C-alpha cells in the first residue's frame, strides 16, 4: 500500500518540476520581458540599467537563475515581485487563497444542491416535459461563456436594475473578508457564486441524470422495486447512492482545478482578488516570480486532486486499476 | 458489442434487411434524431451566414467593418445621424457610438471605432468557427497518435508519453493557453524558413489544439490499452497476426469512433476557449475579429451600448448549444453505451 | 484635534489672512469637514512606494502628501501649483558661485513619523541613497552634483563627498554642482528628493513605506488589494504652502476594478475618486447625472505616435509627412473623449507649457492651429515616397484608450496605402519594447507627461541624440531621431536657461518648430485631466504637478 503512494508522490513531483521548467522557459522566450528595464524606470541610463540587471542576477545563465528562483520560492520563501518590488510572493498567494476558496466553496454548494435536485427531477420524469426542459437548460448552461454571463450579470445588477428593489442591495464589485463583515462578504459573492455555478449545475445535473437512469436498469434496483419499496426511497437510498461515485470523482477534479485558479475568468470579471486574478495579472505584467508561484500553486491543486481521485477510485473499484 | 437496452431502441427493420455496416447504422440513427438534425441545420445556417459576410458588408451594412469610421454618418428614416454621437446636452463631454438601429446599416450599432458590429460579427464568426474547427482537428489528430502509440506499444514509450500528458493535464487549461499566447502573440514563431506572424490564426489554433490533447489522448490510451489486452486481440496475436494488421483492423476503427464522438463536443469546448482567450485579448489579434474580441470591445461599452457585448455572446451560445446537441446525437448514435464523456471546465 | 485649520480655496485663504473674525469663522467651518474616509480606486497599483525609486504619476500623488523634500511644489490649485516653495528648508537659497553652490537651512522641529527629527545628515543620506538604489534619473538629473560620477560607477560606496555637505552646528546642507542647472530646484521638488531618515535601508523599500514627514503616512500597502493612509501623529503644520494639514482621517486606495466598474462604483457612492480616465462612452451619462462631480483640468502631456526614422518605411521623410497630414486629430480627440477633454496638437510641447509657441503645418490651412486633415496632400506625398504597399505594424499597449488609438492609426495607414496591422501588448512591457531598436518597431502609440515645468523635459529628453541608445531597453528617444544641428542648439539653450529663462523659452519654441518640420512623430493631441468624484467629495483641489491633492478634499 505504501509503495503505490510513494510512486504517486514521485510522479506528482515530476509533473510539478516539468511545469516549473515550462513556465520558466516560456517567460524567458518572451521579447521585451527583460524585467531590468521595467525595474529601472522610464528614462534610466544604460549604466543604471546594467546595475539593476546585475543586482537582480539577470545577467547569469538561465539554469542558475532557475535554481535561484526555485530556491527563493521553496527554501528561503522570500521571493519578491519584479513589478511591485518588495511585494513578497508567498504571502500574496496565501492572502488571495481565502478569496478563491470563498468563491469556489459557495459556488460548489450551489451547484451540488441544484445539480442533485435537477438530476433527480429529470431522472424521475425521464422522457417527460420536465426532464427535457431541465436537460435543455443544463445544456444552455454548459454552452454559455462564463465571462459573458458575468458581464451581463454586472450590467443587470450594477447598472440597469441597480436602482430597483431587486438589486439595490448589491454592493460594488470586490471582496470583503468573511471575518471583517460577513453580511458584506455574502452580498458581494452571491452573484459571482451563481455565475460560476451555472456551468457546473448543467454539467453535473446531466451526468447525474444519466447515471441515475443507468442505475435504474441495474438488478439491485429491480430487486428493491420487487420488494415494494417506494419510488422515493429507491431514488434516494439506492440509485442516488451508486450514481454519486462518478459525481464525487468529477467534483474532486473540478474543485481542485477551480481552487487552483481555474475560476480566473469569474475572478477577473467580478474583480475578486483571488488566485486566478493574481495569476492573470502576473501573466499580463510578465511578473515571473508571481507566475512561477501561482502556477506551481494551481498545478499543485490539480495534481493533488488527480491523485486523490485516482486513489479513491482505485479503492472503490479495483477494476479501474487495470484500465489506467 | 451488444447491449439489451440499446438493441431495444434500434429500428427493427434494420435487422431484417441486408446487414449494414456499423457506420451506416450510426448515421441512419443520427439522422433519425430530430434534435441532432435540428442542430445540424442551425450550424449550417450559421456557417452560411458567416460565409456571406463580404456580401453583407457590401450590400447591407455598406461599410468596411475593418476601417475606423469615427467621422461618418448614416441616413436613418430620412435623417442624417452621426455614427459617433458627441454629447450635446450638459457639459458636452464624451462620445458614444450609435446603438442598434435594427435597420440594414448598423443593425447592432457601432463599436468604439464606429464600425458596424453586425458585419464584424459575421467576419468574426468566420474566425471563431475556423479556429474551433481546426483546433479540434489538431487535438484529435495529436491525441489519436499519442494515445494509440502509448496504449499499443506500452512499456517505456507509454511511461514517457503518459507523464508528458500528465504535465499538460495538470497545467490548468487557461493558464497554459495564456502563457503560450503571451509568448507567441508578442513574438510570432519562426520554424526553419517559415515565419508565422503573431497575428496569424494558426497560433490560436495550435495553442487551443494542444492544450486539450490530454483530454482526448488519455481516454484513447485507456481504450487502446484495454483493446490490446482484450481476448480477441490476444487470440489474434496467438494466431500470428502481425501487430500492424491488428492495429489497423482491430484498434483503429474503435479509435475512429471515439474521435467522431469527441469531435463536436471538443469543437464546442474550443469555441468557448477561443472566446475566453480573445476576451483576455490574447486570442485573435486586432484589427481581425472573433466573437470573443467583439465581446471584449463591447465590454468597454457595456453600460451604454450593451448590445455590442450581448450579440456576439448569443452567437457563441447558439453555436455551442447546437454543437453540444449534435454531440449528444453523435454519441447516442456511435457510442450507445455512452462510455465517453468530455470533461469540461 | 488642536491643529489650526483653514479652507483651501485661495479666495477664502485671503479672507482668512485678512482678519481674525473671518479666520475663526473659516476655522469653525473647516473643522466641520474634518474626518471620514476617502475612498480612492485605480485599475492597478504602481509598483514600489520607495520615494527614491517610484516614477509614476499615480504614486507621486500619494508621496506628495506623505513626504517632503527640501523644496516643494505649492500644494494649491491653479497656476501657482507650478511654483517651488521652501519645504523642509526654511527658504529657497540664493545661488552662490555662479549657480554652482546652494546652501539650504533645515527647518527645526519637523519630525518623521517614527518620532525622530529631520537632520542635515538625513538630507545627505537621502542623496547618497538616490545613487545607491539606482534611481531611474540618477544618471540624467542628479549627475550634476559633485561626486556623482563616482557614485554612478560604484553605487554601493557612494558618499557624494564634496557634493552634498552637512553642517550640524549651523543646521545647513550645502550642494555643490559641477555646472549651473536651471532645473535643479525642480529636481529637488519631485518625490525623488523626498528626505528619508539616514538609517533607511539602501535598497528598494518595495511595499514597506519610508517614514513620512507629511500629514499622512502609509500604514499598509498590498499591490494586489489596497493601500491605507492614516494621519501621521508627529505631523505639525509648518507651511501651508509646502505641506498643508489634511481633512480626512483615513485614505483607502483600492486596486483592481476596470474603469467602467470604477465609474459605476463612484456613481453608486461606493468610491470617491478614480485614478483612471473614465471610458468615453460613459461621459455623457456621468455629465448629465452628476455634473458637479466632474472636474476638468489641463495637463502638460502629449499623446503621440513616434515613427522610427532609421528603418523602412519611416526612414522616408515623405512617408512621415504623409502620416502627419492624413492623421485626423479630431478623430483621435473623439476617441479620447471629445473636444472638451483633449486639444489637437501637432508639436512636441503641450499648449501653455514654458516655451510653447503654437505651430501646425500639418493641416488644411497650415498655421498655428490644426483644423482638418489634408488627405490630398498626404496621398501625393505618399506617392512621392514610393512606400505604397509597405507592411507596417503599429504597437500599442493594452491600457485605456491606447488600443483604440492604435486601431484608428492602422485605419489611417491603410487608407494611405500601407499594409498596416496592430499589435497590442501588455502596458507593462510596451514602453520598453518600443524603445529597443532590436525589436524593429516602426510606429507605436505612446504618451509623455511632464516631470516638471521645463521645455527641456520634452525636447531634450525625447528627441536629443543623448537619449538614443541603440539596442537598449532604455532609449527614450523612441524615434531614434538624432540631428546634430538641432542637438547643438539644444545644448546651447540649456546653458542659456541658467541665466536667462525668458530667452531660453523663446529659443525652445523655435527648436520645437524645427523638430515638427522634421516629423519624427505624428503628435495627436494634448489630453486634459477629467476627475470624476463622488457626490460627497468637496473642496476639489487640483495641482498641475500632482493632480488631485488628497489631503485637501473632504468627504463630510
From TrEMBL, chain A:
Localization per Swiss-Prot or TrEMBL: Cell membrane
Keywords (A to Z) from UniProt: Cell membrane, Membrane, Transmembrane, Transmembrane helix, Transport
GO biological process: transmembrane transport
GO cellular component annotations of the record: plasma membrane
Membrane-spanning intervals of the chain: 12-30, 99-121, 133-156, 185-203, 242-270, 290-316
Keyword Chaperone recorded: no
Gene3D superfamilies linked: MetI-like (1.10.3720.10)
ABC transmembrane type-1 domain: residues covered: 97-313
Annotated membrane topology: Multi-pass membrane protein
Keyword Transmembrane helix (UniProt): yes
Entry's family note: Belongs to the binding-protein-dependent transport system permease family.
Protein name, as recorded: ABC transporter permease
From TrEMBL, chain B:
GO terms for cellular component: plasma membrane
Cross-referenced CDD domains: TM_PBP2
Pfam families hit by this protein: BPD_transp_1, OppC_N
Keywords attached to this entry: Cell membrane, Membrane, Peptide transport, Protein transport, Transmembrane, Transmembrane helix, Transport
TM region(s), chain numbering: 36-57, 129-155, 167-189, 201-217, 251-272, 307-327
Stated name of the protein: ABC transporter permease
Subcellular location: Cell membrane
All copies of domain ABC transmembrane type-1, residue ranges: 129-327
UniProt similarity note: Belongs to the binding-protein-dependent transport system permease family.
Main location: membrane
PROSITE patterns: ABC_TM1
Biological process according to GO: peptide transport; protein transport; transmembrane transport
Domain of life: Bacteria
TrEMBL record, chain C:
Entry's Gene Ontology molecular function annotations: peptide transmembrane transporter activity
Signal peptide coordinates: 1-30
GO biological process: peptide transport
Chief location category: periplasm
PROSITE patterns linked to this entry: SBP_BACTERIAL_5
Subcellular location: Periplasm
Keyword Chaperone: no
Pfam families for this protein: SBP_bac_5 (PF00496)
Family indicated by similarity: Belongs to the bacterial solute-binding protein 5 family.
Keyword terms, alphabetized: Signal
Signal among keywords: yes
Stretches that traverse the bilayer: none
Highest taxon of the lineage: Bacteria
Protein's recorded name: ABC transporter substrate-binding protein
InterPro entries in alphabetical order: Peptide/Ni-bd (IPR030678), SBP_5 (IPR039424), SBP_5_CS (IPR023765), SBP_5_dom (IPR000914)
SUPFAM superfamilies tied to this protein: Periplasmic binding protein-like II
GO CC, alphabetical: ATP-binding cassette (ABC) transporter complex; outer membrane-bounded periplasmic space
Stretches assigned to the Solute-binding protein family domain: 84-466
Native species: Acidisoma silvae
